[in-house]
Write a structure and sequence with these properties.
- Among the domains are: 68 residues, Dna Ligase, domain 1 (2-Layer Sandwich), CATH 3.30.1490.20; 58 residues, no CATH class.
- The longest helix has 14 residues.
- Helices cover 36% and strands 23% of the residues.
- Strand 13 and strand 14 form a beta hairpin.
- By secondary structure, the protein is of the alpha+beta class.
- Helix 1 packs across helix 2, helix 2 crosses helix 11 and helix 5 packs across helix 6.
- The protein is globular, with a radius of gyration of 21 Å.
- GO terms for molecular function: ATP binding; metal ion binding; ribosomal S6-glutamic acid ligase activity.
Length: 329
C-alpha cells in the first residue's frame, strides 16, 4: 500500500489523492486522466469519473440549489428543516432594514468559496453598509440575489458528511484561538501562531474587522496581554482558510443531528453532501440551524482533523459509488 504522499504525488491534487487511495483500498481500478484534475475509476465494464471534488452523485439542479444559499435556505425551510431566517438584500438600505429588524445578523454573498465576503455581527449601520458592499464584491452567483442577510445563530459549527442514508464523518469546526502567556499581546500571539502555521503549510489567521469585533465583544483588544494559559477565541468564522481547526467528534453527537443532516441532503435531492449545522450542544437535541450544504465537499476536514480519530471518509463514498455503478444496467 502506498503512502498518502505517494498518492498525492501521483494524483497531483489533495482531493483526488483521497479518492485514489480509497480505490486502492477497495480494489477499484483507477487511471489519472489529467493530473491534478480528473481520475477515472472502473469496476468490471462500468466506470465513472471524479473531477477535483466533483463526484457523479450530484445532479445539476441539486448543485444549483446547493451553491445558491438563498435557494438552499428556501428549499430546506419548505421541508421543515431548521434554518436561519434569511432575506435577499438588493441594496444597502435593505441591509440596514434587516439589521434593525434582527440586530444579530450575518451578511454574506449568495455564492462564494472559503468564507470570503462574509461579515458576522456588524454593530453599526456604517458597518452594515460596508459589509453589504464587501459581500456584493465577492459574490460569484449569476442570479438576481447577490447578497443575503441572515439571522446569526449562536453555537458551535459542525460539518456532517452524508452519503446515501449514512453520516460517514462529523467534525467540529473550531474558530482559531491563541493561548496567553502573560507576556505577549494578542496581536503578538497571532504573529507567533502564524509563523508556526506557515511551517505546517496552514493558512494564516488574518487580523481583520471580524477579529476586532470578536475581541471587543469579549472586552479585549489586540493590545491586551492575556493571562497564562488563557484561551482567546479570535473569530466567529471557523473556515480553515482563516485559521480554523477541526476535531473529529462523531462519538459524542446525538442521533437527532445525524438524522437532520440526512434529511437535509435528501430535501435537496442529493446523494452526497457536506451539511453545516450550528448547535449549542451537539450531545443532545436542541435549537440548531443549517446554514449551508456543500454539494461537492472537500474531504480534508476529516483527514486533517487536529484532534480525534481521523476517518478515511473517501472509502465509504467510493463504496457507495461502486455499488451504484456495479448494479447499474
Amino acid at each position: 500500500m502506498k503512502t498518502y504522499e505517494e498518492y498525492l504525488k501521483e494524483a497531483g491534487n489533495v482531493h483526488l489523492a483521497y479518492y485514489v487511495e480509497a480505490a486502492d483500498i477497495l480494489g477499484i481500478k483507477y487511471t489519472i486522466v489529467v493530473r491534478s484534475l480528473i481520475a477515472k475509476f472502473e469496476v468490471g465494464d462500468k466506470h465513472w469519473f471524479i473531477i477535483n471534488t466533483v463526484t457523479p452523485l450530484t445532479s445539476s439542479p441539486s448543485a444549483t440549489i446547493s451553491k445558491r444559499k438563498n435557494l438552499t435556505n428556501m428549499v430546506l425551510s419548505s421541508y421543515g428543516v431548521d434554518v436561519p431566517k434569511q432575506e435577499g438584500l438588493s441594496s444597502a438600505i435593505d441591509a440596514i432594514k434587516f439589521f434593525n429588524k434582527y440586530k444579530n445578523i450575518v451578511i454574506k454573498p449568495s455564492q462564494q468559496l472559503g468564507g470570503k465576503g462574509i461579515t458576522l455581527l456588524p454593530e453599526t449601520e456604517a458597518q452594515v453598509i460596508s459589509s453589504f458592499n464587501v459581500a456584493l464584491e465577492k459574490d460569484r452567483s449569476k442570479g438576481e440575489v447577490k447578497v443575503l442577510g441572515e439571522e446569526f445563530i449562536k453555537g458551535e459549527n459542525y460539518r456532517f458528511l452524508v452519503v446515501g442514508e449514512n453520516v460517514v464523518g462529523i467534525v467540529w469546526r473550531k474558530a482559531p484561538v491563541v493561548i496567553g502567556n502573560s507576556k505577549n499581546t494578542i496581536r503578538e500571539l497571532i504573529d507567533i501562531s502564524n509563523k508556526e502555521r506557515s511551517l505546517l503549510v496552514l493558512k494564516s489567521i488574518p487580523i481583520d474587522s471580524e477579529v476586532q469585533t470578536r475581541l471587543k465583544n469579549a472586552d479585549l483588544t489586540l493590545d491586551t496581554i492575556p493571562e497564562e494559559d488563557q484561551i482567546i477565541t479570535l473569530r466567529y468564522n471557523c473556515n480553515l482558510t482563516t485559521g480554523g481547526t477541526t476535531e473529529e467528534c462523531a462519538s459524542i453527537v446525538d442521533p437527532y443531528y445525524k438524522e437532520l443532516a440526512v434529511k437535509a441532503v435528501k430535501a435537496l435531492d442529493l446523494e452526497f453532501g457536506g451539511v453545516d449545522i450550528i448547535a449549542e450542544d451537539i450531545t443532545k437535541p436542541g435549537k440548531c440551524g443549517i446554514n449551508e450544504i456543500n454539494y461537492n465537499p472537500g474531504l480534508r476536514l476529516h483527514y486533517k482533523a487536529d484532534k480525534g480519530e481521523k476517518v478515511k471518509v473517501a472509502v465509504p463514498i467510493m463504496e457507495y459509488i461502486r455499488d451504484k455503478y456495479a448494479n447499474k444496467l
